[in-house]
Design brief:
Blueprint lengths: L2 H19 L4 H11 L3 H6 L8 H5 L4 E10 L5 E12 L5 E7 L5 H17 L6 E6 L8 H15 L8 E4 L6 H15 L20 H19 L8 E4 L4 H12 L3 E2 L1 E4 L2 E5 L5 H10 L4 H8 L3 E5 L10 E3 L9 H9 L4 E3 L8 H9 L3 E3 L1 H4 L2 H14 L6 H25 L6 H19 L4
Parallel strand pairs: 3-4, 3-5, 6-7, 6-11, 11-12, 12-13
Antiparallel strand pairs: 1-2, 2-4, 8-9, 9-10
Helix pairs in contact: 1-2, 2-5, 5-17, 6-7, 8-9, 8-15, 8-16, 10-11, 12-13, 15-16, 16-17
The structure holds NADPH dihydro-nicotinamide-adenine-dinucleotide phosphate and (2Z)-2-iminopentanedioic acid (2IT).
């Protein structure tokens, strides 16, 4: 047997062990499989990575915090939600990653997101470890006062576990500027400290960075542009299908338009909108960010160019590019086959793990340029780290400076993934490139810091 096949067998055993230890956590197991399955070449080439216990430590969070979050609605009724913070790996810096408020949140979902975050944050080249948190609280239809009381109760427990040098949460699904404001207020009140760097995604004027709201979507488009450049193409004149209509989707659509491409869809959990003229991002912002409405309202107001399709799959709409920007496993094998049939050239994952493993395989086999989330959507957390740097220096940078840094970081991530894939005999395979490059950086730090 070759070294690589011995390594493969060892990794397979490890995966079986991980399955036994983490029953009923399908999303975490999916994420662990996806990473470990690509590591054989690097573990075979670098014997230090085969050291007993290294990968076992990597798949086990350093700390997991689970807590009760009681709160009262506007009628005085008491609700009890669950709060989570998984502090996965701090070899490269304080735990860093968002908070998700969505009814589907459970420990397995937070562990999958935290695990992905380790490698994503490593790829940015900045000093941030990996973590993730959230709650099964559903903010849809809740008043501002209810969201505030929930956030205050959540932070009343979370504050014990976070800090600018320890763990720095930010937003994710269901957590945006409003929630970060309420969370920061409660942290400040309880601790009696102005500790700006404890949360990122703060408002402008009280420690937030310019371009943080835009960063994930802009970065995902820049990653798509870099993949196209590699193939001698650019974004000019390309059409795109985008899913979601939240933070990532909105700024993905905005950047596509700015670079000469045209997003013809957006969606939410009720259905999708096709807009032949291209999505009007200002109208979408008004409906979603100001009024907290739904995409069917966008279609009603937009006039004859747009129609709302209840349910259905946004991936049925033909386009040159696909940028899934809603949630995990939203793009399955059937959807991937439809995209390929319709001639898609590149897929850039704005969301975390939106494509299923079968979909990724099919797209790659068909020669589609595929940018995995841990590379393509790293712009958000990268600008969060730049927000931390600004907070630490008690300064704030211009939008132009932050955008320039973001573009550099996204191009560097693209180059790193591309070159790493070539180095390990997988040219054009950004999944392998991202996993190995992220792994090398974290594993080297863990080995240097001893068995902890
Ligand atoms: P938002 O809450 O702003 O928007 C989420 C969007 O996705 C909404 O349109 C929502 O529709 C839709 N959606 C969420 N869950 C589901 C579901 N189960 N089925 C169908 N649609 C769904 O979140 P973000 O835009 O911030 O996050 C989107 C994705 O990007 C997530 O995967 C997140 O982890 C990832 N991400 C976010 C970053 C950030 O900086 N915010 C950074 C990197 C990645 P509805 O309102 O109907 O639920
Ligand atoms: O998935 C992600 O990278 C985020 N939700 C952003 C995390 C952050 O700390 O900005």
């Amino acid at each position: 047997m070759t070294t690589r096949s011995v390594t493969r067998t060892t990794l397979d055993h490890l995966l079986t062990e991980i399955e036994h230890r983490n029953p009923a956590q399908p999303e975490f197991l999916q994420a662990a499989h996806e990473v470990l399955e690509t590591l054989a070449p690097v573990v075979a080439a670098r014997p230090e990575y085969a050291e007993p216990g290294l990968i076992e430590r990597l798949v086990e969070p350093e700390r997991q915090v689970l807590f009760r979050v009681p709160w009262q609605d506007d009628k005085g009724r008491v609700h009890v939600n669950r709060g989570f913070r998984v502090e996965f790996n701090s070899a490269l810096g304080p735990y860093k990653g968002g908070l998700r408020f969505h009814p589907s949140v459970n420990l397995g979902v937070i562990k999958f997101l935290g695990f992905e975050q380790i490698f994503k944050n490593a790829l940015t080249g900045l000093g941030i470890g990996g973590g993730k948190g959230g709650s099964d609280f559903d903010p849809h239809g809740r008043s501002d006062a209810e969201v505030m009381r929930f956030c205050q109760s959540f932070m009343t427990e979370l504050h014990r576990h976070i800090g600018e040098h320890t763990d720095v949460p930010a937003g994710d699904i269901g957590v945006g500027g409003r929630e970060i404001g309420y969370l920061f207020g409660q942290y400040r009140r309880i601790t009696n400290r102005w500790e700006a760097g404890v949360l990122t995604g703060k408002g402008q004027g009280w420690g937030g960075s310019l371009i943080r709201p835009e960063a994930t979507g802009y970065g995902s488009v820049l990653f798509a542009a870099a993949m196209l450049r590699e193939r001698g193409e650019d974004l000019e004149g390309q059409t795109a299908v985008v899913s979601g209509s939240g933070n990532v989707a909105i700024y993905t659509i905005e950047k596509l338009a700015a670079l000469g491409a045209n997003a013809v869809t957006c969606s939410d959990s009720s259905g999708y909108v096709v807009d032949e003229k291209g999505v009007d991002v200002e109208l979408l912002k008004q409906v979603k960010e100001v009024e907290r409405g739904r995409v069917d309202t966008y279609a009603e107001r937009r006039g004859s160019s747009a129609r709302f399709v209840p349910g259905g799959s946004v991936w049925d709409v033909p386009a040159d590019l696909a940028l899934p920007s809603a949630t995990q496993n939203e793009l399955d094998e059937n959807a991937a086959a439809t995209l390929v049939r319709n001639g898609v050239k590149a897929v850039s994952e704005g969301a975390n793990m939106p494509a299923t493993p079968e979909a990724v395989h099919l797209l790659q086999k068909a020669g589609v340029a595929f940018g995995p989330g841990k590379a393509a959507n790293a712009g958000g957390v990268a600008v969060s780290a730049l927000e931390m740097a600004q907070n630490h220096a008690r300064t704030s940078w211009t939008a132009a400076k932050v955008e320039e840094e973001l573009a550099d970081i996204m191009n560097n991530i693209h180059t790193t993934c591309h070159e790493t894939a070539e180095r390990y005999d997988a040219p054009g395979d950004y999944v392998t490139g991202a996993n190995i490059a992220g792994f090398e950086r974290v594993a080297d730090a863990m080995l240097a810091q001893g068995v902890i």
